[in-house]
Amino acid sequence: MTESSPAVFVSRNSSLFDYLTVGPPISNTLARVVDPTDSTVEYGPGETGEIQVKGPQVMMGYHNNPEATANTISPEGWLSTGDIGYYNDKKEFFIVDRIKELIKVQGYQVPPAELEGILRTHPAVLDAAVIGVPDDRTGEAPLAYVVLDPDRPAASEADMKTFVAERVAPYKQISAGVRFVESLPKSAAGKILRRLLKDEYEKTKATK
Fold this sequence. Notes:
Number of domains: 2
Family: Belongs to the ATP-dependent AMP-binding enzyme family.
Shape: globular
Subcellular location: Peroxisome
CATH superfamily of the largest domain: ANL, C-terminal domain
Pfam family, one: AMP-binding
Main location: other
Number of helices: 5
Oligomer: single chain
InterPro entries: AMP-bd_C, AMP-bd_C_sf, AMP-dep_synth/lig_dom, ANL_N_sf
CATH topology of the largest domain: GMP Synthetase, Chain A, domain 3
Distance between the termini: 41 Å
């Protein structure tokens, strides 16, 4: 990110496991994971939260914008990256999502990428995306868009919901349902464009 040029982490890529991580912090750089709603609460290995970094490469602040600077960098110099992730016992960091993409369910923060990853492990699924939609009871609820593999036995919405429910906490279940689609909107870099799915959801909701 621009605020921490030129780098914070370096991955060795010495194995598949290392390939999935952004690596440990580089020399003279510190990194930690904190509660996204309270940065004074620091998490340990395997716990998912917001990644913060600190080092000589972190910017001094935004030009003529002290408010934005204060919202991004703590008085102790910790830069809030906006990335959701965790680290392992080797201090290797993994990024799983962005804070702005989190689904807020009953006060809990649910990373859509976590649910997408689980859905993609289902043998009938080619691809999946998850967004948060309004819910009167929980505030927001996860809604899944799933692309099925035509060469595999068909799977139902109930199959998908059960598959996820067996692997996550109750508040992370895809309670808003599953929509089967032929493809997912993606950027040129292959990133899922969740905002387009949210637009599609709103249009569908408006016509009902």
